[in-house]
Specification:
It is a multi-pass membrane protein. It is found in: Cell membrane. This is Oligopeptide transport system permease protein OppC. It comes from Achromobacter kerstersii. This protein is mainly alpha-helical. The chain has a single domain, classed as MetI-like fold (Orthogonal Bundle). Helices cover about 70% and strands about 0% of the residues. It is built from 13 helices and no strands. The two termini are about 30 Å apart.
């Protein structure tokens, strides 16, 4: 039974209607979604910038097929001083443009995988807490609060220090500190749908709890979770930048945060080494936040007439 079913045959004959779920009252057709998203000009601009970052990451291997960490020229060549190095070289003579391109690939990979990890954990914990209730709800929420009171940056640095500075470790650490807000949001959404008429109807016809949760409640609760997940990607990029800036990033990959960290000692003489990756981080995070705002406007039925 779908949440979009609004009337039963008997109720239809009697002239009574059953309250439909939000998914039924707010159709999310692709054209309708794009139209609502396009009303937010900032979100459109953010999507364009994010698309450029994705294209840069996808074409990094074609634009710069060699190892971006190798030395290719003299150190500290300023941007636009040489046509071979449009963004200049760092203190070791590595091409900053190649580092930015390959760093975009690593940054997006960490952000997306960490967000997927946080979303999976958060949705599972929040759904289990809301559906089970009682002591299970209390226990899971206390665990969530425990993770929230631990300083996230300290937690990430501790995990990376113990398990080693590898991209897999950084991604796992960021995912482990990012799930509590998603869990609390999912729990709130599930509690709001748990006693709705369409869920009660599913129980009445004997549907299993797993099928009700996965097939009926979760699709209706996903829109705000998707918005939150897009913001988690932005947060993951910042966490990775902080870890790399402090020298705990993976030494075998190009990273924007690592480039900023390596250039901080030369900020007075060659400030561009810090500025170029810093601007890249700012644009990526800003574009993701703008895209999150646009998704909220497009997926939130309360804002459709705004």
């Amino acid at each position: 039974m779908s949440a979009s079913s609004s009337v039963s045959p008997a109720a239809s004959g009697a002239g009574n209607t059953t309250a439909a779920s939000p998914a039924a009252s707010a159709p999310h057709r692709p054209a309708s979604f794009l139209s609502r998203y396009a009303r937010n000009r900032g979100a459109v601009a953010g999507a364009i910038v994010l698309l450029l970052v994705v294209l840069l990451a996808a074409s990094a291997g074609w634009l710069y097929p060699t190892n971006p960490l190798r030395i290719v020229g003299a150190p500290e060549i300023w941007p636009f001083e040489s046509w071979r190095y449009p963004l200049g070289t760092d203190s070791m003579g590595r091409d900053i443009a190649a580092l930015i391109a390959h760093g975009a690939r690593a940054t997006l990979l960490i952000g997306l995988v960490a967000a997927a990890t946080a979303t999976l954990i958060g949705v599972s914990v929040g759904a289990a807490a809301a559906w089970s209730g009682g002591w299970i709800d209390e226990a899971l929420m206390r665990v969530t609060e425990l993770f929230q009171i631990i300083p996230n940056v300290v937690f990430v640095l501790t995990i990376v220090s113990v398990l080693g500075p590898h991209i897999e470790t950084i991604t796992l650490a960021v995912g482990l500190v990012s799930w509590p807000p998603i869990a609390r949001l999912t729990r709130a959404e599930f509690l709001s749908f748990k006693e709705r008429e369409f869920v009660q109807a599913c129980r009445a016809v004997g549907m299993s709890p797993l099928r009700i949760v996965a097939g009926e409640i979760l699709p209706n609760a996903l829109p705000p979770v998707i918005v939150m997940s897009s913001l988690v990607v932005a947060g993951a990029i910042l966490y990775e930048s902080v870890v790399s800036f402090l020298g705990l990033g993976d030494p075998n990959i190009a990273s924007w945060g690592r480039l900023v960290g390596e250039g901080r000692s030369l900020i007075r003489s060659s400030w561009y080494i810090c500025a170029v990756p810093g601007v890249a981080i700012m644009l990526a995070v800003l574009s993701l936040n703008l895209v999150g705002d646009g998704l909220n406007d497009a997926l939130n039925p309360k804002l459709q007439k705004r």
